[in-house]
Amino acid sequence: MPEPTGVIHDIGYQRYTGPRLGRRYVFGALYLHGVRTAFGLGRSAKAKIFPWLVVGIVLMVAAAVTAIRSQIGETVMTYAQFADSMSWLVIFFTAVAAPELVSRDLRSGVLPLYFSRPLSHADYPLAKLLALVTALFLLLGAPQLVMFLGAAFTSDGMGGVWDELLDLLPGLLYAGLWAAVFASIGLLIASLTGKRAFAAGGIVAVFLMTTPVVGVLSILPAQAANQLAGIASPPTLVQGVGVWTMRDLLITDPDGVVPDLGPFGPVYALAAVALVAACVTLLLARYRKVAAR
Amino acid sequence: MSTVSWITVRGLFGRRRFLLLLPLPLLLVLLAVLSRGLGVEPTDWGPPVLVGLGLAVVLPVVALIVGTGVLGAEIDDGTVVHVLTTPLPRWQIVLPKLAVAAGVTAVTVAIPLFVAGLLADSVRLGLALAIAAAVGALAYSALFVAVSLLTRRPVLLGLVYVLIWEGLLGNVITGTRVLSIQHYVIALADQLAPTDLLSTTVSVSVAVVMTVLISVAATFLAIDRLRSFSVAGETS
Description:
The complex is a heterodimer of chains A (293) and B (236).
Chain A: H1 22-38, H2 45-72, H3 79-85, H4 87-108, H5 111-115, H6 123-154, H7 157-190, H8 196-217, H9 223-228, H10 234-245, H11 247-250, H12 265-286
Chain B: H1 3-13, H2 23-37, H3 42-77, H4 80-84, H5 91-120, H6 123-150, H7 154-172, H8 181-192, H9 204-227
Helix pairs in contact in B: 1-3, 1-5, 2-3, 2-5, 3-5, 3-6, 3-7, 5-6, 5-9, 6-7, 6-8, 6-9, 8-9
Protein name (chain A): ABC-2 type transport system permease protein
Transmembrane segments (chain A): 49-68, 126-151, 171-190, 197-220, 267-285
Keywords (chain A): Membrane, Transmembrane, Transmembrane helix
């Protein structure tokens, strides 16, 4: 038996010695991809129809409000009221975007690929949540910016612009609250199913079925129940926090129907914080253990 | 019961996801019992529960989930090919599926509405609501089955109709109510049991004609679309 003659040739394989991008870069990439996905950017025209339909409607409303204000001088709605009057569209946008963000990954079974990267189990849901919050904030904030620009260019002097800015900032904060509450609920529901259709239906069902609960609670023959009724539904909960913190900006019509909070304003704020915290906790628990399917 | 409808029923109830259909009707009954038990006037709680929850949310959402589930789910996961390759005329595929969708929706929605109507006013109102909801279930199901053949995203298109057309525009521009199944159902129920709990601007004759028209047209559209159905993978 001859001696083995095999040799190992050095054909120049090299180790990668450059900088490694690591966890923060993965998080950033996932976040940016999430924001783009929410609006259908970088995808086919079909994926852009529904998000941009909603964006188009809100921008059109903002343009109309701006035009009416600059031509007739009548303020149809303040910056903070904008989010309130668009609540149905916010629900629809959440139902469009949240399943795109998480349900597709569940259905195509790519989560093990994500988690084989230097990405902790909390990072994936948090990046997606942050992306959805950003998308919703942009959806509600951009029209307010349009309204602000319209008002700023028609107002006289820097004082007028400054006043407008002071009105705009609480409006933007309020939009952020809307975005946080709706995104955390929507993403939690969407993360339960891999079917985008069921996720969208579930999100809308949860948001819509809580609204009549508020209607019934607010006519019960108990004053405390009436004043706490708004907590039962996300849109009225957010509205309650808004009425408590910036009453003058939300209620401009003295004869209109005003949600009566009684002494429970802080309870609304606590409930909103607790709701978001609970949804984020459940979302993290949902992704603690990820099966291949 | 044909094989197609048997397969459809098993597809709907074979998995745990049909449990998703339960919370909405239960909430409807729960709210009605709660309001009645606490002695609130029916004129106060009737409109938000019967119309606001029952006819505006439970009926369309259940019809949407079921209606897009009977055919849309099969198209989604590609198993519709197995049904299409059998030597069945297309109407023998669409009609049983539509019947199952309408039947399941009608049962899920009519029973809680009957209970709520009974608690609100009388047996007559309960029966009227149940019958009107069953008719509405047929129209919604026909519409959503047709939608699930027209587009790959039937649920979202259905939500555009339910949320934006019926929900947003129907309340602002009353003219759009002429094309809103929700208001046909209200008009029908109000005709069968006249009370001051239900009110709409749509007349009964318009409601009847439009309900029949939408059901028949959507069914024919669905049969026609299935005739020239092309099997394609997911694109976007």
